[in-house]
Amino acid sequence: MTDDLTQLTIKEASRLLRLGSISAADLVTAHVQRIERLDQHVKAFLRFTPEVWEKQADEADRRLRQGDAPPLCGIPLAVKDVLCVRGVETTAGSQILKGFRPPYTATAVARLFEAGAVMLGVTNCDEFAMGSSTENSGYFPTRNPWDLERVPGGSSGGSAAAVAAGEAMIALGSDTGGSIRQPAALCGVVGMKPTYGRVSRYGLIAFASSLDQIGPFARSVDDAAITLSLMSGLDPLDATSSDRAGMEVLNNFGAGVKGMRLGVPREYYDVKGIEPGVKSAIDAALAVLRTQGAEVVEVSLPHTDYGLAAYYIIAPAECSSNLARFDGVRYGMSEVDAPNITEQYLETRRKGFGSEVRRRVMLGTYALSSGYYDAYYLKAQKVRTLIKRDFDEAFKQCDAIVSATSPTVAFPIGSKTQNPLSMYLCDVLTLGGNLAGLPGISVPCGTSHGLPVGLQVLGPQWGENVVLRVARSYEEASGVKTQVADVV
Fold it and tell me: What is the pLDDT of residue 353?
């Protein structure tokens, strides 16, 4: 019975909770027991929060008894280690913030708490969300529940792995260049990146402020949709947040794809390095969508080849500015001995930041420096505008864009760590959505060599309901569901 509870969707669990067949405490206990059994192998979590889940589960059961249960009442939640939760150690996967306990809670997390979600713990990630494999964590690598010798993707690999292993029903991640969608694909779960501004970034430890977005991992498209709707909406604490109603993401999203035009970019379909098994799974997914009445058309995103270079100038430039605040003086690492304040800053950052973070800070600082700003950062922003225009033109020909999420399945741990460029190429199909500020989702669409493959759906700005509509139609018609991985 315990493991059965860890394989439910939100809809299934909520029904049992409201009928009184199970309690919130039962549901949380089932997930905690699974974590105790499996996470020593998966290592999805950095730290657990029993003081939080016990209080929240008790409150959920009280509200269930009174009949005023909110939509996520009693649903177990995991939170990526870049989202602040008041009083809970939050370190962005970095040693430099070890011991930091925020005095406030991120708006996205707070809204899920208000909706009744129960926080189990904090999930591992690449340090400051910089990576595609969760091997850049300042603590330890997370492992893919489908094959413990392979990566779960990144940077939100801990959240993806927690959902895939049945250790949480939903989890929060952040997506700067694909950090929700790519690990969702590699772990065989649903992962949703909203339009930039749909979800407040207040309380998110920033990587690249013009690219970052918070979104959910879930076991079904419906679960992702309801979670996103509850997180969304205007936040006076984030000037970039939109006043669009969160519930609009659910508009007509169950209507199917009959009569829709779905664009397949030739640059994505034939992207360099795509594995034959991944392409075969995407071909099969396109065939399913055709049987549901969608018209699949070819579109072009001609500046795709410049996207990777533009992204790896813009994102490091913004990270170099954002990470300047971490000096170990007022919070985080502070035990460094040095003869003066300048040396203390230097030594703190040498010891506190990992190699990938230092690499990106140096790249970004160089790109912003006098004499190079116009040649690098300004030019990259012009390319970003061209990429946005490519998508605008493509959406004149189609309702949504479909492709693989990742050109490869999960790769072996350690296989790309010595070649940063090969790791960066993991994001080639996802980062365009961030540069253009678009909503996107990855849904499981079969396997290649026994490992999950993800189908990516991108929509126009504020078109989450269109993205969810395509993803839900495919999920229902294909019968390809998120499976809780049989870890050991």
Answer: 95
Catalytic residue among 155, 159, 174, 200: 155
Q: What pLDDT is recorded for position 420?
A: 85
Retrieve residue 477's tokens: 């018609």
Quick one: DSSP state of residue 244?
Answer: S
11 carries an active-site annotation: no
| The two three-digit tokens of residue 100, written as one number | 């930091």
DSSP letter assigned to residue 94: -
- Alpha carbon distance 102, 122 (integer Å): 13
Q: Which residues pair with 400 in a beta bridge?
A: 262
Q: Which of 132, 137, 179, 473 is catalytic?
A: 179
Q: What are the boundaries of each domain within the chain?
A: 2-257+468-478
Those residues with Cβ within 8 angstroms of residue 221's Cβ, 6 or more apart along the chain or in another chain: 190, 441, 443, 468, 471, 472, 475
CATH number corresponding to 2-257+468-478: 3.90.1300.10
Give yes or no: 179 in active site: yes
Q: Which two tokens stand for residue 49?
A: 């929060």
**Pick from 167, 143, 159: which is nearest to 32 by CA?**
167
Chunked into runs of 10 residues, the chain (488 residues) has average pLDDT values of: 84 96 98 97 98 98 96 98 98 96 98 98 98 98 98 98 98 98 98 98 97 98 98 97 93 96 97 97 98 98 97 97 88 80 86 95 94 94 98 98 98 93 93 98 97 98 98 94 71
Strand partners, 401: 263, 458
Phi/psi for 455 (5° steps) reads -100, 125
Helical spans, DSSP H, in 105-167 = 107-114, 157-164
Catalytic residue among 14, 23, 43, 80: 80
